[in-house]
């Protein structure tokens, strides 16, 4: 039986090789739900099993909407054990608000988002998203949904949901999977 790091390493390799959005979503779940020490062991298991660097494979893989976000999360070296700062969270909430508007271009300022994701821990990002809702009166995902411009914005929505409201995110994922299973069962029973 595989340990958690080896399982995550295999799942990461499958996601990178397939390039499917569903596989990348699984990889997002790994990078947003695991602590830095667990991610370190996943990267080591990936290197041992595939003789390649996980971060390098994610960068050299053909471009995918989730790719830049995953690389930012993977390169973050902030500890999950540090206490999140409310002051930084409020500043980040303002940066998210400004980045959402993309300087008036209508699309999200990717550089600002990627910088924040690469420099903040998941608990700090979660607090920033909570501050955003407190200050602006709505979730950051709702703001993104209003002006969806492309694949990056949709990928960002998925990552933010996984960080900010993981239970709600996993509930929706589970409901979708059950709906697909019920549909497949219906067609299996009903026949062609």
Automatic annotation (TrEMBL):
<dbReference type="InterPro" id="IPR009118">
    <property type="entry name" value="AnnexinD_plant"/>
</dbReference>
<keyword id="KW-0106">Calcium</keyword>
<dbReference type="Pfam" id="PF00191">
    <property type="entry name" value="Annexin"/>
</dbReference>
<dbReference type="GO" id="GO:0009651">
    <property type="term" value="P:response to salt stress"/>
</dbReference>
<keyword id="KW-0677">Repeat</keyword>
<keyword id="KW-0111">Calcium/phospholipid-binding</keyword>
<dbReference type="GO" id="GO:0001786">
    <property type="term" value="F:phosphatidylserine binding"/>
</dbReference>
<dbReference type="GO" id="GO:0005544">
    <property type="term" value="F:calcium-dependent phospholipid binding"/>
</dbReference>
<dbReference type="GO" id="GO:0009409">
    <property type="term" value="P:response to cold"/>
</dbReference>
<protein>
    <recommendedName>
        <fullName>Annexin</fullName>
    </recommendedName>
</protein>
<dbReference type="InterPro" id="IPR018502">
    <property type="entry name" value="Annexin_repeat"/>
</dbReference>
<dbReference type="GO" id="GO:0009414">
    <property type="term" value="P:response to water deprivation"/>
</dbReference>
<dbReference type="GO" id="GO:0005737">
    <property type="term" value="C:cytoplasm"/>
</dbReference>
<dbReference type="InterPro" id="IPR037104">
    <property type="entry name" value="Annexin_sf"/>
</dbReference>
<keyword id="KW-0041">Annexin</keyword>
<dbReference type="GO" id="GO:0009408">
    <property type="term" value="P:response to heat"/>
</dbReference>
<dbReference type="GO" id="GO:0005886">
    <property type="term" value="C:plasma membrane"/>
</dbReference>
<keyword id="KW-0479">Metal-binding</keyword>
<dbReference type="GO" id="GO:0005509">
    <property type="term" value="F:calcium ion binding"/>
</dbReference>
